[in-house]
Design goal:
Helices cover 80% and strands 0% of the residues. The termini are far apart.
Amino acid sequence: MTLRQEAYAMIDSLPDDDSVKFFIDMIRQFNIVTRRTGEISRGQNLLSEKRQAFLHMEELKNKYPFPKDYDYEQVRKEAMEEKYGGVN
């Protein structure tokens, strides 16, 4: 008897519909927990990748810093003017 056949036989041997409903609910809950566990595992891997990327960016920022007189606001204004012109 295969595992699937054994499961069908167990379901057929349940005494009433309430027992079958309970069994189905248990399987659904098991699937939800299993899915969440997999999502947590994938989420941790993704977080690890993001953390590694962030640490790499920090390393590059420290290796190649902006000049001390770099004016972020002026660069932003020039970029806005170049892209949008004199739109008011």
